[in-house]
Amino acid sequence: MNKAPYIWMDGEFVSWDEAKVHILTHTLHYGNGVFEGTRAYQTEKGLAIFKLREHTKRLLNSAKITLIKPNFDLETLEKAQVELLQKNKFKGNVYLRPLIYLGYGVMGLYHAKAPVNTAIAAWEWGTYLGEEGLEKGIKVKISSFVRSSVKSTMGKAKAAANYLNSQMAKSEAVDCGYEEALLLDSEGFIAEGSGECFFIVRDGVLISPPNDTSLESITQGMVIE
């Protein structure tokens, strides 16, 4: 991982190595936290954040779904992401990771009284599956793991707990000699990749599965639009 000078934590810029949480942070034990994965690309005018408003709205909607009351509003979070990029003075393309999580002070499953914290990290990160994968393609395995039902795991939220399913599918694929996993839903239809939406070109037509059993993809929506 490429370190950056600063991480934004609850309204303050903290040095990368000092951005720490307590070992009894609620989200660390029970998995209820929400995040985004937002890209910023270098342009002639500097870094441009891809769909900042849409990603930040989805972050807050994920918090609503998982019964977390955010401690910052939409405009504040958008401004913080822009300022973080400016302060870190990146030279390459950047990955932004806003995270709303339940902090230290309460244990047990009932989380309503747990403090809410927000952090935003950003670092230089290239193509997700590597430049070679982008140029030559990758091998994809249909996973033996089924995409979790939206009725049981709040699948419409980009929640930390949901990614255990993706993590296991990804690990299985890599262990079997593939680069990525493709997950089906409980009915055997394609849902999504372990960390991305799915498209296929068939007879010259671009096809992508609906979001019935998967996270609503901002990238998918833009491509279809």
Rg on CA atoms, Å? 18 Å
- Helix vs. strand class: alpha+beta
Number of domains: 2
Q: Report the sheet-strand fraction.
A: 25-35%
Ranges where pLDDT stays below 50 over 5 or more residues in a row are none
Give a structural overview:
- There is one protein chain.
- This protein has 225 residues and is an alpha+beta fold.
- It folds into 2 domains: 6-124, Aminotransferase class 4, branched-chain amino acid transferase, N-terminal domain (D-amino Acid Aminotransferase, Chain A, domain 1), CATH 3.30.470; 132-224, D-amino Acid Aminotransferase, subunit A, domain 2 (D-amino Acid Aminotransferase, Chain A, domain 2).
- 28% of the residues lie in helices and 27% in strands.
- The chain is built from 7 helices and 12 strands.
- The protein has helices at 26-30, 52-65, 74-88, 131-136, 150-153, 163-175, 218-224; strands spanning 6-9, 12-15, 33-35, 38-43, 46-49, 94-102, 116-124, 140-146, 180-184, 190-193, 200-202, 205-207.
- Strands 1, 2, 3, 4, 5, 6 and 7 form a 7-stranded antiparallel β-sheet that branches. It has a 3-stranded mixed β-sheet with strand order 8-9-10, with helices on one face.
- Strand 9 and strand 10 form a beta hairpin.
- The two termini are 33 Å apart.
- The mean pLDDT is 94.
What is this structure, in a nutshell?
28% of the residues lie in helices and 27% in strands. The chain has helices at 26-30, 52-65, 74-88, 131-136, 150-153, 163-175, 218-224, and strands spanning 6-9, 12-15, 33-35, 38-43, 46-49, 94-102, 116-124, 140-146, 180-184, 190-193, 200-202, 205-207.
